[in-house]
Amino acid sequence: MRRGGETLRMTGYVVRRIMLMVPVAFFLTLILFIILRLTPGDPAQVVLGEQATPETVAALHHELGLDQPLPVQYAIWLGRIVHGDLGRSLSNRQPVLASIEERLPATLELGALAFVAHVGGALVLGVFAAVYRRSILGPLTTLSASVFFSLPSFFFAILLVLLFAIKLRLLPVSGYAPLTGPDADLRENLRHVTLPMLSLAIPQTAALARLVRSSLLDTLYSDYIRTARAKGLSEWVVIGRHAMRNSALPLITEIGLNLGFLISGAVLIETIFAWPGVGRLAVSALNSRDYPVVQGVVLISALSIMAANLVADMAYAIADPRIAYHARAGG
What we know:
Elements: H1 2-38, H2 43-48, H3 54-64, H4 70-82, H5 96-131, H6 137-150, H7 153-167, H8 186-220, H9 223-230, H10 235-246, H11 248-272, H12 278-287, H13 291-319, H14 325-328
Helix pairs in contact: 1-13, 5-6, 5-8, 5-11, 5-13, 6-8, 7-8, 8-11, 11-12, 11-13, 12-13
């Protein structure tokens, strides 16, 4: 009966959070629409070229609906979103959703590998820095976290390219090898994804490692940890079975926030390494003033970040069953 009540509270909490996402997404679409329309440049002029006559540009404006008042354009776009239609590209008239679906596997691969490398590397570095806190590893982790977190991802991209692609000639600078399909090549895919994955993961890894170290150090001095050690358990068993579980809550929060950084950072990294993902699609669409594509990519990215934060909040209950959803729902 108690488990059933917890399930109902969790379901109610998730439903409330999803309902709160609706007005947030609405204001996001409004702000995004206004900012893009204030951006200098005429999409019709970009599509037709500089030699196009004013009559031809006006005709394309009418065809694309760009000659209608802005409130009407926004209402039409919003109505399509409600029905699951993100519109069509102004450049090639291809459905925006189809363009995103075509680029999504590459972005998901890059993001998933960067996330695994980010979390795995941070846990290993943080745990070793806490266990060997009296060695040089502890201060070194703290120092590297401050330095790495203050530097942008493109800085690491440049360093990695100089070292592994130009100096050592071990990895390619750009390009993509498919992971699935008739032309799939796992080895080449891993060679191409390594540099963008590391460039995306490194800036966040050091900061999370510092948080792992500090959370673990606070836990290692607790009474129940001393009791576990008194029972004769090894240090690694104490850390893995007791200390890490009770240090997980602040880590879950940080990991949930870092998901947003990984999604936003992928735009720049994909452009630098010519990775054929959704981020590179957004940059090319922005350069060509392709409003529907940019709006679709940003909207889906924002919804992904909100969904990731929801998953992080739900993970609190797994780490600590004492958390009450009805108490957190208002926060």
